[in-house]
User: Fold Acetyltransferase from Paenibacillus pini JCM 16418.
Amino acid sequence: MSYNQQTLTIRPSEMKDAQFLMDLDAIVWNDLTAPEPLHWTSREDFLQHCLPGSQLVAVVDGELCGYVGFRSPTSMLSNGHVYEISIAVHPDFQHAGIGMRLMEAAKSWALERGRLKLRLRVLSSNPGAVSFYRKCGFVEEGRLQNEFYIGDQYVDDILMGYLMM
Assistant:
């Protein structure tokens, strides 16, 4: 699907977005993209883990189509300059530049909050995602070999990072 760049809005998530975000997680996080599919047990479960404002959502013509989520990887002050992120774009909107715009917004959002590094994890069985992250400036920082057994094969867990300094 194509869209006009002017119709895309990126904003912090709100309480009213919870059901869409839960549904998107169920669509996007599957055996190809995650160690196991992600299904929230309830709206309350989702909101306990994903507070409003902990994601930036992409909206095209009033329709939510993706998000990038942020969380602190640890509670240690010495790790306070890092955000761990996850990103998802609805399949109907993939390959339209929305993911790239979400990543640009994520970098700005993190910098405004004093974060100097973004990190993420991606499965080696998802070469499209690995390529996308590289295009966004992420580099491989580590690899947990044969970390998961998915679909009758062992899959590496690739750790990637982006430094904003």
Notes: Helices lie at 18-28, 43-49, 98-112, 127-135. The mean pLDDT is 93. The radius of gyration is 16 Å. The domain at 5-163 is CATH 3.40.630.30 (Aminopeptidase).
